[in-house]
Write a structure and sequence with these properties.
The complex is a heterodimer of chains A (348) and B (289). Chain A is mainly alpha-helical and 348 residues long. Helices cover 77% and strands 3% of the residues of chain A. The radius of gyration of chain B is 19 Å and the shape is globular. Classes of the chains: A mainly alpha (348), B mainly alpha (289). Chain B: Keywords: Amino-acid transport, Cell membrane, Membrane, Transmembrane, Transmembrane helix, Transport.
Protein backbone atom coordinates (compact mmCIF):
# COMPACT_ATOMS: atom_id res chain seq x y z
CA UNK A 1 0.00 0.00 0.00
CA UNK A 2 2.28 2.80 -1.21
CA UNK A 3 -0.42 5.44 -0.74
CA UNK A 4 -0.85 4.77 2.98
CA UNK A 5 2.92 4.66 3.34
CA UNK A 6 3.21 8.01 1.58
CA UNK A 7 0.59 9.43 3.90
CA UNK A 8 2.35 8.07 6.99
CA UNK A 9 5.75 9.38 5.88
CA UNK A 10 4.48 12.86 4.99
CA UNK A 11 2.53 12.99 8.25
CA UNK A 12 5.65 12.06 10.23
CA UNK A 13 7.71 14.68 8.38
CA UNK A 14 5.17 17.45 9.06
CA UNK A 15 4.87 16.42 12.70
CA UNK A 16 8.65 16.29 13.11
CA UNK A 17 9.00 19.72 11.53
CA UNK A 18 6.34 21.14 13.83
CA UNK A 19 8.01 19.63 16.89
CA UNK A 20 11.42 20.95 15.91
CA UNK A 21 10.29 24.38 14.74
CA UNK A 22 10.87 26.35 17.99
CA UNK A 23 14.47 25.13 18.03
CA UNK A 24 15.23 26.88 14.78
CA UNK A 25 12.75 29.74 14.68
CA UNK A 26 13.29 32.29 17.39
CA UNK A 27 11.09 35.09 16.09
CA UNK A 28 8.32 35.54 18.66
CA UNK A 29 6.07 36.82 15.89
CA UNK A 30 6.41 33.62 13.88
CA UNK A 31 5.69 31.56 16.99
CA UNK A 32 2.71 33.78 17.75
CA UNK A 33 1.34 33.10 14.26
CA UNK A 34 1.78 29.36 14.75
CA UNK A 35 0.02 29.51 18.13
CA UNK A 36 -2.90 31.36 16.56
CA UNK A 37 -2.98 28.73 13.85
CA UNK A 38 -3.12 25.89 16.41
CA UNK A 39 -5.85 27.72 18.30
CA UNK A 40 -7.89 28.17 15.12
CA UNK A 41 -7.46 24.55 14.13
CA UNK A 42 -8.72 23.36 17.50
CA UNK A 43 -11.64 25.82 17.46
CA UNK A 44 -12.67 24.87 13.94
CA UNK A 45 -12.24 21.17 14.61
CA UNK A 46 -14.35 21.33 17.79
CA UNK A 47 -17.15 23.04 15.91
CA UNK A 48 -16.77 20.50 13.11
CA UNK A 49 -17.80 17.62 15.38
CA UNK A 50 -21.18 19.19 16.12
CA UNK A 51 -21.71 21.31 13.01
CA UNK A 52 -19.95 19.26 10.37
CA UNK A 53 -20.66 15.68 11.42
CA UNK A 54 -23.91 15.99 13.36
CA UNK A 55 -25.22 18.83 11.19
CA UNK A 56 -26.23 21.03 14.12
CA UNK A 57 -25.02 24.47 13.08
CA UNK A 58 -24.44 26.23 16.35
CA UNK A 59 -23.85 29.97 16.10
CA UNK A 60 -23.25 30.10 19.83
CA UNK A 61 -19.92 28.37 20.35
CA UNK A 62 -18.62 31.52 22.03
CA UNK A 63 -20.60 30.27 25.03
CA UNK A 64 -18.23 27.30 25.53
CA UNK A 65 -15.11 29.21 24.50
CA UNK A 66 -15.99 32.00 26.91
CA UNK A 67 -16.95 29.76 29.83
CA UNK A 68 -13.64 27.88 29.48
CA UNK A 69 -11.63 31.08 29.22
CA UNK A 70 -13.46 32.85 32.04
CA UNK A 71 -13.39 29.93 34.49
CA UNK A 72 -9.67 29.37 34.12
CA UNK A 73 -8.89 33.07 34.35
CA UNK A 74 -11.20 33.69 37.31
CA UNK A 75 -9.74 30.77 39.26
CA UNK A 76 -6.23 31.97 38.54
CA UNK A 77 -6.95 35.61 39.28
CA UNK A 78 -9.10 35.30 42.38
CA UNK A 79 -7.99 32.06 44.01
CA UNK A 80 -4.49 31.66 42.54
CA UNK A 81 -5.40 28.25 41.17
CA UNK A 82 -2.93 27.30 38.44
CA UNK A 83 -4.52 27.03 34.98
CA UNK A 84 -3.60 23.36 34.57
CA UNK A 85 -5.94 22.68 37.47
CA UNK A 86 -8.41 25.41 36.52
CA UNK A 87 -8.88 23.94 33.06
CA UNK A 88 -10.65 20.93 34.55
CA UNK A 89 -13.14 23.13 36.37
CA UNK A 90 -13.73 24.95 33.09
CA UNK A 91 -14.42 21.70 31.28
CA UNK A 92 -16.70 20.41 34.03
CA UNK A 93 -18.68 23.65 34.01
CA UNK A 94 -18.92 23.55 30.22
CA UNK A 95 -20.37 20.03 30.34
CA UNK A 96 -23.12 21.36 32.61
CA UNK A 97 -23.71 24.37 30.36
CA UNK A 98 -23.68 22.20 27.23
CA UNK A 99 -26.19 19.71 28.63
CA UNK A 100 -28.45 22.57 29.70
CA UNK A 101 -28.21 24.10 26.24
CA UNK A 102 -28.71 20.71 24.63
CA UNK A 103 -31.85 20.02 26.58
CA UNK A 104 -33.31 23.34 25.40
CA UNK A 105 -31.95 23.66 21.88
CA UNK A 106 -32.09 20.09 20.61
CA UNK A 107 -35.85 20.07 20.82
CA UNK A 108 -35.66 22.60 18.01
CA UNK A 109 -34.65 22.11 14.44
CA UNK A 110 -32.88 24.09 11.73
CA UNK A 111 -33.24 27.85 12.06
CA UNK A 112 -34.81 27.57 15.51
CA UNK A 113 -31.75 25.71 16.78
CA UNK A 114 -29.47 28.39 15.35
CA UNK A 115 -31.51 31.17 16.99
CA UNK A 116 -31.60 29.39 20.35
CA UNK A 117 -27.83 28.81 20.29
CA UNK A 118 -27.25 32.53 19.68
CA UNK A 119 -29.66 33.48 22.47
CA UNK A 120 -27.87 31.28 25.02
CA UNK A 121 -24.46 32.72 24.12
CA UNK A 122 -25.85 36.24 24.37
CA UNK A 123 -27.35 35.52 27.80
CA UNK A 124 -23.91 34.38 28.96
CA UNK A 125 -22.20 37.44 27.47
CA UNK A 126 -24.65 39.82 29.13
CA UNK A 127 -24.32 37.92 32.42
CA UNK A 128 -20.53 38.29 32.26
CA UNK A 129 -21.00 42.04 31.83
CA UNK A 130 -23.49 42.31 34.68
CA UNK A 131 -22.06 39.93 37.29
CA UNK A 132 -19.31 42.41 38.12
CA UNK A 133 -18.29 40.88 41.45
CA UNK A 134 -17.56 37.55 39.77
CA UNK A 135 -16.25 38.54 36.35
CA UNK A 136 -15.12 42.13 36.81
CA UNK A 137 -17.80 43.11 34.27
CA UNK A 138 -16.96 44.89 31.04
CA UNK A 139 -13.43 45.65 32.25
CA UNK A 140 -12.47 42.01 31.91
CA UNK A 141 -9.89 39.99 33.82
CA UNK A 142 -6.21 40.64 33.47
CA UNK A 143 -4.00 37.83 34.80
CA UNK A 144 -0.59 37.48 33.22
CA UNK A 145 1.43 35.99 36.09
CA UNK A 146 1.56 32.30 35.35
CA UNK A 147 3.09 30.14 38.08
CA UNK A 148 5.96 27.89 37.01
CA UNK A 149 4.88 24.46 35.82
CA UNK A 150 6.55 21.73 37.92
CA UNK A 151 6.49 17.98 37.76
CA UNK A 152 7.70 16.39 41.01
CA UNK A 153 9.51 19.52 42.17
CA UNK A 154 11.38 19.95 38.91
CA UNK A 155 10.53 23.14 37.02
CA UNK A 156 9.48 22.23 33.50
CA UNK A 157 8.80 25.74 32.29
CA UNK A 158 8.25 29.20 33.70
CA UNK A 159 6.34 30.46 30.66
CA UNK A 160 8.86 33.21 29.97
CA UNK A 161 8.86 32.73 26.20
CA UNK A 162 6.26 31.69 23.67
CA UNK A 163 7.80 28.22 23.27
CA UNK A 164 5.77 26.44 25.99
CA UNK A 165 2.59 27.97 24.57
CA UNK A 166 3.62 26.74 21.16
CA UNK A 167 3.79 23.16 22.39
CA UNK A 168 0.54 23.40 24.35
CA UNK A 169 -1.15 24.76 21.23
CA UNK A 170 0.33 21.99 19.10
CA UNK A 171 -0.89 19.32 21.51
CA UNK A 172 -4.34 20.92 21.57
CA UNK A 173 -4.56 21.01 17.79
CA UNK A 174 -3.36 17.39 17.49
CA UNK A 175 -5.79 16.31 20.20
CA UNK A 176 -8.80 17.81 18.42
CA UNK A 177 -7.60 16.33 15.14
CA UNK A 178 -7.25 12.89 16.74
CA UNK A 179 -10.68 13.08 18.35
CA UNK A 180 -12.25 14.13 15.06
CA UNK A 181 -10.50 11.20 13.36
CA UNK A 182 -11.87 8.89 16.02
CA UNK A 183 -15.39 10.35 15.68
CA UNK A 184 -15.24 9.97 11.93
CA UNK A 185 -14.27 6.32 12.09
CA UNK A 186 -16.40 5.22 15.02
CA UNK A 187 -19.97 4.11 15.27
CA UNK A 188 -20.73 7.45 16.88
CA UNK A 189 -19.58 9.22 13.72
CA UNK A 190 -21.86 7.11 11.53
CA UNK A 191 -24.80 7.80 13.83
CA UNK A 192 -24.07 11.52 13.73
CA UNK A 193 -23.83 11.57 9.95
CA UNK A 194 -27.07 9.61 9.69
CA UNK A 195 -28.75 12.24 11.89
CA UNK A 196 -27.28 15.00 9.75
CA UNK A 197 -28.50 13.50 6.50
CA UNK A 198 -32.03 12.62 7.62
CA UNK A 199 -33.06 12.95 11.22
CA UNK A 200 -36.38 11.15 10.81
CA UNK A 201 -34.85 8.26 8.91
CA UNK A 202 -32.13 7.91 11.54
CA UNK A 203 -34.78 7.93 14.25
CA UNK A 204 -36.79 5.23 12.53
CA UNK A 205 -33.64 3.09 12.37
CA UNK A 206 -33.52 3.22 16.16
CA UNK A 207 -30.79 5.82 16.64
CA UNK A 208 -31.49 7.82 19.77
CA UNK A 209 -31.41 11.33 18.26
CA UNK A 210 -31.19 13.40 21.40
CA UNK A 211 -28.61 11.12 23.02
CA UNK A 212 -26.14 11.27 20.13
CA UNK A 213 -26.71 14.96 19.50
CA UNK A 214 -25.91 15.59 23.16
CA UNK A 215 -22.79 13.43 23.01
CA UNK A 216 -21.57 15.38 19.97
CA UNK A 217 -22.39 18.64 21.72
CA UNK A 218 -20.51 17.71 24.89
CA UNK A 219 -17.38 16.61 22.98
CA UNK A 220 -17.49 19.76 20.89
CA UNK A 221 -18.13 22.00 23.89
CA UNK A 222 -15.37 20.50 26.05
CA UNK A 223 -12.80 20.88 23.27
CA UNK A 224 -13.94 24.46 22.63
CA UNK A 225 -13.61 25.25 26.32
CA UNK A 226 -10.06 23.85 26.30
CA UNK A 227 -9.27 26.19 23.42
CA UNK A 228 -10.86 29.02 25.42
CA UNK A 229 -8.76 28.28 28.51
CA UNK A 230 -5.65 28.16 26.36
CA UNK A 231 -6.57 31.49 24.76
CA UNK A 232 -7.12 33.04 28.19
CA UNK A 233 -3.77 32.06 29.67
CA UNK A 234 -1.88 32.78 26.45
CA UNK A 235 -3.26 36.30 26.00
CA UNK A 236 -3.52 36.91 29.76
CA UNK A 237 -6.74 38.88 29.35
CA UNK A 238 -10.40 38.08 28.79
CA UNK A 239 -13.38 40.40 28.49
CA UNK A 240 -16.97 39.76 27.34
CA UNK A 241 -16.72 40.81 23.67
CA UNK A 242 -13.43 39.01 22.92
CA UNK A 243 -14.39 35.59 24.30
CA UNK A 244 -18.21 35.62 24.48
CA UNK A 245 -19.21 37.89 21.61
CA UNK A 246 -21.24 36.87 18.58
CA UNK A 247 -18.16 37.58 16.44
CA UNK A 248 -16.32 34.78 18.24
CA UNK A 249 -19.07 32.29 17.41
CA UNK A 250 -19.05 33.37 13.79
CA UNK A 251 -15.26 33.12 13.53
CA UNK A 252 -15.19 29.63 15.05
CA UNK A 253 -17.83 28.52 12.59
CA UNK A 254 -16.12 30.17 9.62
CA UNK A 255 -12.86 28.28 10.05
CA UNK A 256 -14.76 25.06 9.53
CA UNK A 257 -17.10 26.27 6.80
CA UNK A 258 -14.42 27.88 4.67
CA UNK A 259 -12.29 24.76 4.98
CA UNK A 260 -15.11 22.26 4.53
CA UNK A 261 -17.62 20.90 7.02
CA UNK A 262 -17.65 17.26 7.95
CA UNK A 263 -14.11 16.61 6.72
CA UNK A 264 -11.04 15.85 8.81
CA UNK A 265 -8.75 18.36 7.10
CA UNK A 266 -11.30 21.09 6.36
CA UNK A 267 -10.76 23.08 9.58
CA UNK A 268 -6.97 22.78 9.16
CA UNK A 269 -7.26 24.18 5.65
CA UNK A 270 -9.64 26.88 6.86
CA UNK A 271 -7.23 27.94 9.61
CA UNK A 272 -4.33 27.93 7.15
CA UNK A 273 -6.25 30.37 4.95
CA UNK A 274 -7.90 32.56 7.58
CA UNK A 275 -5.12 33.09 10.13
CA UNK A 276 -2.43 34.42 7.78
CA UNK A 277 -4.92 36.53 5.84
CA UNK A 278 -6.46 38.20 8.84
CA UNK A 279 -3.05 38.70 10.48
CA UNK A 280 -1.75 40.28 7.27
CA UNK A 281 -4.64 42.72 7.38
CA UNK A 282 -4.35 43.34 11.09
CA UNK A 283 -0.63 44.08 10.97
CA UNK A 284 -0.96 46.30 7.91
CA UNK A 285 1.18 43.98 5.78
CA UNK A 286 -1.23 44.38 2.89
CA UNK A 287 -1.03 48.16 2.88
CA UNK A 288 2.75 47.96 3.08
CA UNK A 289 2.79 45.50 0.19
CA UNK A 290 0.62 47.82 -1.89
CA UNK A 291 3.00 50.67 -1.13
CA UNK A 292 6.03 48.53 -1.96
CA UNK A 293 4.62 47.45 -5.30
CA UNK A 294 3.90 51.08 -6.06
CA UNK A 295 0.13 50.75 -6.42
CA UNK A 296 -0.50 53.16 -3.57
CA UNK A 297 1.75 55.95 -2.42
CA UNK A 298 2.38 55.92 1.33
CA UNK A 299 1.75 59.64 1.69
CA UNK A 300 -1.33 59.83 -0.52
CA UNK A 301 -4.75 60.08 1.04
CA UNK A 302 -5.60 56.54 -0.01
CA UNK A 303 -2.39 55.19 1.48
CA UNK A 304 -2.89 56.97 4.78
CA UNK A 305 -6.53 55.94 4.87
CA UNK A 306 -5.69 52.26 4.30
CA UNK A 307 -2.95 52.35 6.90
CA UNK A 308 -5.28 53.93 9.40
CA UNK A 309 -8.33 51.77 8.87
CA UNK A 310 -7.60 48.49 7.11
CA UNK A 311 -6.23 46.98 10.30
CA UNK A 312 -9.54 47.54 12.08
CA UNK A 313 -11.57 45.99 9.31
CA UNK A 314 -10.05 42.53 9.08
CA UNK A 315 -13.49 41.12 9.77
CA UNK A 316 -14.55 42.56 6.42
CA UNK A 317 -12.42 39.86 4.88
CA UNK A 318 -14.36 37.19 6.79
CA UNK A 319 -17.55 38.59 5.33
CA UNK A 320 -16.29 38.61 1.76
CA UNK A 321 -14.83 35.10 2.13
CA UNK A 322 -18.08 33.68 3.48
CA UNK A 323 -20.12 35.16 0.67
CA UNK A 324 -17.68 33.87 -1.95
CA UNK A 325 -17.46 30.42 -0.40
CA UNK A 326 -21.24 30.02 -0.08
CA UNK A 327 -21.90 31.23 -3.62
CA UNK A 328 -19.09 29.48 -5.43
CA UNK A 329 -17.92 26.54 -3.31
CA UNK A 330 -20.67 25.60 -0.87
CA UNK A 331 -18.72 22.50 0.15
CA UNK A 332 -15.79 24.62 1.34
CA UNK A 333 -12.19 24.44 0.16
CA UNK A 334 -12.02 20.68 0.77
CA UNK A 335 -15.03 20.13 -1.48
CA UNK A 336 -13.43 22.33 -4.10
CA UNK A 337 -10.14 20.44 -3.92
CA UNK A 338 -11.97 17.13 -4.17
CA UNK A 339 -13.91 18.30 -7.20
CA UNK A 340 -10.67 19.36 -8.90
CA UNK A 341 -9.05 16.02 -8.04
CA UNK A 342 -11.92 13.97 -9.41
CA UNK A 343 -11.99 16.05 -12.58
CA UNK A 344 -8.30 15.43 -13.11
CA UNK A 345 -8.82 11.72 -12.55
CA UNK A 346 -11.56 11.66 -15.14
CA UNK A 347 -9.39 13.45 -17.67
CA UNK A 348 -6.44 11.15 -17.10
CA UNK B 1 -48.46 53.94 39.49
CA UNK B 2 -46.92 56.87 37.60
CA UNK B 3 -43.71 54.87 37.16
CA UNK B 4 -45.68 51.92 35.85
CA UNK B 5 -47.63 54.05 33.36
CA UNK B 6 -44.45 55.81 32.34
CA UNK B 7 -42.61 52.61 31.52
CA UNK B 8 -45.68 51.09 29.86
CA UNK B 9 -46.04 54.08 27.55
CA UNK B 10 -42.37 54.29 26.61
CA UNK B 11 -42.40 50.52 26.10
CA UNK B 12 -45.27 50.79 23.65
CA UNK B 13 -43.62 53.70 21.83
CA UNK B 14 -40.28 51.94 21.34
CA UNK B 15 -42.20 48.72 20.61
CA UNK B 16 -43.70 50.40 17.56
CA UNK B 17 -40.25 50.76 16.02
CA UNK B 18 -39.40 47.17 17.01
CA UNK B 19 -42.56 46.07 15.24
CA UNK B 20 -41.31 47.71 12.05
CA UNK B 21 -38.04 45.77 12.28
CA UNK B 22 -39.88 42.53 13.01
CA UNK B 23 -42.37 42.98 10.17
CA UNK B 24 -39.47 43.41 7.76
CA UNK B 25 -37.83 40.18 8.90
CA UNK B 26 -41.08 38.24 8.92
CA UNK B 27 -41.99 39.38 5.39
CA UNK B 28 -38.65 38.15 4.08
CA UNK B 29 -39.00 34.86 5.95
CA UNK B 30 -42.59 34.40 4.85
CA UNK B 31 -41.92 34.81 1.16
CA UNK B 32 -38.52 33.13 0.90
CA UNK B 33 -38.12 30.97 4.03
CA UNK B 34 -34.76 32.69 4.49
CA UNK B 35 -33.83 34.04 7.90
CA UNK B 36 -32.04 37.30 7.28
CA UNK B 37 -29.13 37.46 9.74
CA UNK B 38 -28.07 40.76 8.21
CA UNK B 39 -31.33 42.46 9.14
CA UNK B 40 -29.83 44.60 11.89
CA UNK B 41 -26.99 45.63 9.61
CA UNK B 42 -29.50 46.84 7.03
CA UNK B 43 -31.05 48.89 9.83
CA UNK B 44 -27.58 50.22 10.63
CA UNK B 45 -27.12 51.30 6.99
CA UNK B 46 -30.43 53.17 7.32
CA UNK B 47 -29.12 54.89 10.44
CA UNK B 48 -25.95 56.06 8.72
CA UNK B 49 -27.95 57.21 5.69
CA UNK B 50 -30.09 59.33 8.00
CA UNK B 51 -26.97 60.63 9.73
CA UNK B 52 -25.42 61.65 6.40
CA UNK B 53 -28.60 63.34 5.19
CA UNK B 54 -28.83 65.25 8.45
CA UNK B 55 -25.18 66.25 8.74
CA UNK B 56 -24.49 67.22 5.15
CA UNK B 57 -27.87 68.28 3.81
CA UNK B 58 -29.54 69.30 7.05
CA UNK B 59 -32.55 67.10 6.43
CA UNK B 60 -34.52 66.31 9.58
CA UNK B 61 -34.29 62.57 10.42
CA UNK B 62 -38.07 62.16 10.41
CA UNK B 63 -38.41 63.87 7.03
CA UNK B 64 -35.51 61.85 5.66
CA UNK B 65 -37.66 58.71 5.95
CA UNK B 66 -39.10 59.81 2.60
CA UNK B 67 -35.62 59.37 1.08
CA UNK B 68 -34.41 56.45 3.23
CA UNK B 69 -37.43 54.24 2.49
CA UNK B 70 -37.05 54.14 -1.32
CA UNK B 71 -33.24 54.00 -1.18
CA UNK B 72 -33.26 51.08 1.26
CA UNK B 73 -35.92 49.39 -0.88
CA UNK B 74 -33.56 49.52 -3.85
CA UNK B 75 -30.67 48.32 -1.67
CA UNK B 76 -32.70 45.34 -0.45
CA UNK B 77 -33.85 44.50 -3.97
CA UNK B 78 -30.23 44.56 -5.08
CA UNK B 79 -29.15 42.23 -2.25
CA UNK B 80 -31.94 39.82 -3.16
CA UNK B 81 -31.26 39.83 -6.89
CA UNK B 82 -27.48 39.51 -6.67
CA UNK B 83 -26.96 37.31 -3.58
CA UNK B 84 -29.96 35.80 -1.81
CA UNK B 85 -31.64 34.63 -5.01
CA UNK B 86 -28.78 32.21 -5.66
CA UNK B 87 -29.25 30.29 -2.43
CA UNK B 88 -33.06 30.05 -2.31
CA UNK B 89 -32.88 26.31 -2.86
CA UNK B 90 -29.65 25.73 -0.93
CA UNK B 91 -29.37 24.19 2.52
CA UNK B 92 -30.66 26.36 5.37
CA UNK B 93 -27.21 26.78 6.92
CA UNK B 94 -25.85 28.18 3.67
CA UNK B 95 -28.63 30.78 3.53
CA UNK B 96 -27.93 31.75 7.13
CA UNK B 97 -24.20 32.00 6.49
CA UNK B 98 -24.67 34.08 3.38
CA UNK B 99 -26.75 36.64 5.24
CA UNK B 100 -24.24 36.64 8.13
CA UNK B 101 -21.50 37.29 5.57
CA UNK B 102 -23.44 40.12 3.95
CA UNK B 103 -24.04 41.62 7.39
CA UNK B 104 -20.31 41.46 8.18
CA UNK B 105 -19.53 43.16 4.88
CA UNK B 106 -22.04 45.94 5.60
CA UNK B 107 -20.90 46.63 9.16
CA UNK B 108 -17.20 46.49 8.33
CA UNK B 109 -17.48 48.60 5.19
CA UNK B 110 -19.27 51.23 7.24
CA UNK B 111 -16.54 50.93 9.86
CA UNK B 112 -13.90 51.42 7.17
CA UNK B 113 -15.60 54.60 5.96
CA UNK B 114 -16.80 56.16 9.22
CA UNK B 115 -14.44 54.46 11.76
CA UNK B 116 -16.00 52.80 14.79
CA UNK B 117 -16.57 56.07 16.67
CA UNK B 118 -19.99 56.56 18.21
CA UNK B 119 -21.92 59.21 16.35
CA UNK B 120 -24.77 61.18 17.80
CA UNK B 121 -27.43 62.83 15.75
CA UNK B 122 -28.73 65.60 17.97
CA UNK B 123 -31.75 67.52 16.88
CA UNK B 124 -33.37 70.43 18.68
CA UNK B 125 -36.00 68.04 20.06
CA UNK B 126 -33.76 65.04 20.84
CA UNK B 127 -34.26 65.31 24.59
CA UNK B 128 -37.59 67.17 24.58
CA UNK B 129 -40.55 65.67 26.43
CA UNK B 130 -44.28 66.21 26.48
CA UNK B 131 -46.21 66.12 29.77
CA UNK B 132 -49.21 63.83 29.48
CA UNK B 133 -50.53 64.38 32.99
CA UNK B 134 -50.46 62.32 36.18
CA UNK B 135 -46.71 62.82 36.36
CA UNK B 136 -46.19 60.90 33.12
CA UNK B 137 -44.06 62.43 30.38
CA UNK B 138 -43.34 61.19 26.89
CA UNK B 139 -40.16 61.68 24.89
CA UNK B 140 -40.98 63.80 21.83
CA UNK B 141 -38.76 61.98 19.29
CA UNK B 142 -40.14 58.62 20.49
CA UNK B 143 -43.69 59.87 20.11
CA UNK B 144 -43.08 61.20 16.59
CA UNK B 145 -41.35 57.98 15.54
CA UNK B 146 -44.24 55.96 16.94
CA UNK B 147 -46.75 57.98 14.94
CA UNK B 148 -44.73 57.54 11.74
CA UNK B 149 -44.40 53.81 12.49
CA UNK B 150 -48.15 53.52 12.98
CA UNK B 151 -48.71 55.28 9.65
CA UNK B 152 -46.27 53.02 7.80
CA UNK B 153 -47.70 49.88 9.39
CA UNK B 154 -51.24 50.91 8.42
CA UNK B 155 -50.11 51.60 4.85
CA UNK B 156 -48.35 48.24 4.75
CA UNK B 157 -51.46 46.39 5.94
CA UNK B 158 -53.48 48.16 3.27
CA UNK B 159 -50.88 47.24 0.65
CA UNK B 160 -50.75 43.58 1.67
CA UNK B 161 -54.52 43.15 2.07
CA UNK B 162 -56.01 45.33 -0.65
CA UNK B 163 -53.63 45.60 -3.59
CA UNK B 164 -53.02 42.90 -6.20
CA UNK B 165 -49.27 42.96 -5.63
CA UNK B 166 -49.76 42.68 -1.88
CA UNK B 167 -52.03 39.70 -2.31
CA UNK B 168 -49.51 38.13 -4.68
CA UNK B 169 -46.84 38.53 -1.99
CA UNK B 170 -49.10 36.88 0.58
CA UNK B 171 -49.93 34.09 -1.84
CA UNK B 172 -46.23 33.47 -2.42
CA UNK B 173 -45.67 33.32 1.32
CA UNK B 174 -48.52 30.85 1.72
CA UNK B 175 -47.41 28.44 -0.98
CA UNK B 176 -44.63 29.32 -3.35
CA UNK B 177 -45.35 26.59 -5.88
CA UNK B 178 -49.09 27.12 -5.97
CA UNK B 179 -48.53 30.84 -6.40
CA UNK B 180 -46.23 30.14 -9.32
CA UNK B 181 -48.86 27.91 -10.90
CA UNK B 182 -51.39 30.73 -10.58
CA UNK B 183 -49.14 32.86 -12.73
CA UNK B 184 -47.53 34.94 -10.03
CA UNK B 185 -43.99 36.02 -10.82
CA UNK B 186 -42.44 34.50 -7.70
CA UNK B 187 -38.97 35.88 -8.35
CA UNK B 188 -40.33 39.40 -8.60
CA UNK B 189 -42.27 38.91 -5.37
CA UNK B 190 -39.06 37.80 -3.66
CA UNK B 191 -37.27 40.94 -4.77
CA UNK B 192 -40.24 43.01 -3.63
CA UNK B 193 -40.35 41.26 -0.28
CA UNK B 194 -36.64 41.67 0.41
CA UNK B 195 -36.81 45.26 -0.77
CA UNK B 196 -39.78 45.99 1.47
CA UNK B 197 -38.18 44.20 4.43
CA UNK B 198 -34.99 46.23 3.99
CA UNK B 199 -36.94 49.45 3.54
CA UNK B 200 -38.77 48.80 6.81
CA UNK B 201 -35.53 48.01 8.64
CA UNK B 202 -33.86 51.08 7.15
CA UNK B 203 -36.81 53.24 8.14
CA UNK B 204 -36.66 51.88 11.67
CA UNK B 205 -32.98 52.88 11.64
CA UNK B 206 -33.89 56.39 10.54
CA UNK B 207 -36.54 56.65 13.25
CA UNK B 208 -34.27 55.62 16.11
CA UNK B 209 -31.28 57.64 14.84
CA UNK B 210 -32.15 60.72 16.94
CA UNK B 211 -32.36 58.73 20.19
CA UNK B 212 -29.67 56.07 19.72
CA UNK B 213 -25.90 55.94 19.43
CA UNK B 214 -24.89 55.33 15.82
CA UNK B 215 -21.96 52.93 15.33
CA UNK B 216 -21.11 50.18 12.82
CA UNK B 217 -21.83 47.25 15.16
CA UNK B 218 -25.21 48.54 16.31
CA UNK B 219 -26.94 46.08 13.98
CA UNK B 220 -26.18 42.88 15.91
CA UNK B 221 -28.45 43.90 18.80
CA UNK B 222 -31.30 44.61 16.43
CA UNK B 223 -30.84 41.42 14.44
CA UNK B 224 -31.28 39.48 17.67
CA UNK B 225 -34.26 41.59 18.71
CA UNK B 226 -35.84 41.08 15.31
CA UNK B 227 -35.53 37.30 15.77
CA UNK B 228 -37.10 37.45 19.18
CA UNK B 229 -39.97 39.56 17.86
CA UNK B 230 -40.71 37.36 14.85
CA UNK B 231 -40.44 34.09 16.74
CA UNK B 232 -42.66 35.50 19.46
CA UNK B 233 -45.27 36.53 16.94
CA UNK B 234 -44.88 33.43 14.77
CA UNK B 235 -42.45 33.32 11.83
CA UNK B 236 -44.08 34.78 8.74
CA UNK B 237 -46.99 36.44 10.50
CA UNK B 238 -47.17 40.21 10.00
CA UNK B 239 -49.82 40.68 12.69
CA UNK B 240 -47.69 38.56 15.03
CA UNK B 241 -44.60 40.68 14.39
CA UNK B 242 -46.58 43.85 15.14
CA UNK B 243 -47.80 42.46 18.45
CA UNK B 244 -44.42 40.87 19.17
CA UNK B 245 -42.64 44.19 18.67
CA UNK B 246 -44.89 46.02 21.11
CA UNK B 247 -44.67 43.16 23.60
CA UNK B 248 -40.85 43.17 23.49
CA UNK B 249 -40.83 46.96 23.84
CA UNK B 250 -42.96 46.73 26.97
CA UNK B 251 -40.94 43.81 28.39
CA UNK B 252 -37.71 45.73 27.91
CA UNK B 253 -38.90 48.94 29.45
CA UNK B 254 -40.59 47.16 32.38
CA UNK B 255 -37.53 45.05 33.18
CA UNK B 256 -35.28 48.11 32.89
CA UNK B 257 -37.39 49.81 35.55
CA UNK B 258 -38.19 46.89 37.84
CA UNK B 259 -35.05 44.73 37.49
CA UNK B 260 -32.15 46.77 36.08
CA UNK B 261 -31.21 48.20 32.72
CA UNK B 262 -28.21 45.87 32.51
CA UNK B 263 -30.40 42.77 32.69
CA UNK B 264 -33.23 43.91 30.42
CA UNK B 265 -31.80 42.16 27.34
CA UNK B 266 -31.28 38.97 29.35
CA UNK B 267 -34.97 39.03 30.28
CA UNK B 268 -35.85 39.37 26.60
CA UNK B 269 -33.63 36.43 25.62
CA UNK B 270 -34.93 34.23 28.41
CA UNK B 271 -38.47 35.03 27.26
CA UNK B 272 -37.35 34.10 23.76
CA UNK B 273 -36.03 30.70 24.88
CA UNK B 274 -39.25 30.05 26.80
CA UNK B 275 -41.31 30.82 23.70
CA UNK B 276 -39.08 28.56 21.60
CA UNK B 277 -39.57 25.78 24.12
CA UNK B 278 -43.25 26.00 24.86
CA UNK B 279 -44.79 27.67 21.87
CA UNK B 280 -42.34 27.49 18.94
CA UNK B 281 -45.04 28.43 16.46
CA UNK B 282 -45.39 31.79 18.19
CA UNK B 283 -48.41 33.73 19.31
CA UNK B 284 -50.06 34.07 15.92
CA UNK B 285 -48.36 31.27 14.00
CA UNK B 286 -50.02 28.11 12.90
CA UNK B 287 -48.40 24.99 14.24
CA UNK B 288 -46.09 23.52 11.69
CA UNK B 289 -45.88 19.85 10.82
Amino acid sequence: MPKTLLKAVSGAVVLGALLALPRYVESPYALHMMILLFLSVSQGQSWNILGGYAGQHSVGHAAYFGVGAYTTMMLMHTWQIAPWFGVWFGMALVVVVALAIGSICFRLRGPYFVLASIAVAEILRLSAINLTTLTNGAEGILATDLPAFRIGGRVVTEFLTKVPFYYIGLVLALLTLAITYWVQHSKLGYFLQAIREDQDAAHSLGISISRYKNIALVISAVLTSLAGSFYGIYVGFVDPPTVLGLDVSVQIMLICIIGGMGTLWGPVLGALVLVPLSEALRSNLITEALVQVGLVSAESRVGLFLKENLAHAHVLLYGILVVLVILFMPEGLMGFVRKLASRRKREA
Amino acid sequence: MAVFMQSLISGILIGGVYALIGIGLTLIFGVMRVINFGHGDILMVGMYLTYLLFTYLGIDPFVSVLITFPLMFLFGGFLQKVFINRVLNAAAQNQILLTIGLGLIMSNTVMLIFTSDYKILSTSYSSATIQVGGGVSVSTPLLISFLITAGITAALYWFLLKTDTGQAIRATAQDREAAQLMGINVKRMSILAFGLGSALAGTAGALIAPTYYIFPQVGAVFTLKAFVITVLGGMGSVVGATLGGILIGITESMSAVYISSGWKDVVVFVLFLLVLLFRPSGLMGKSRT
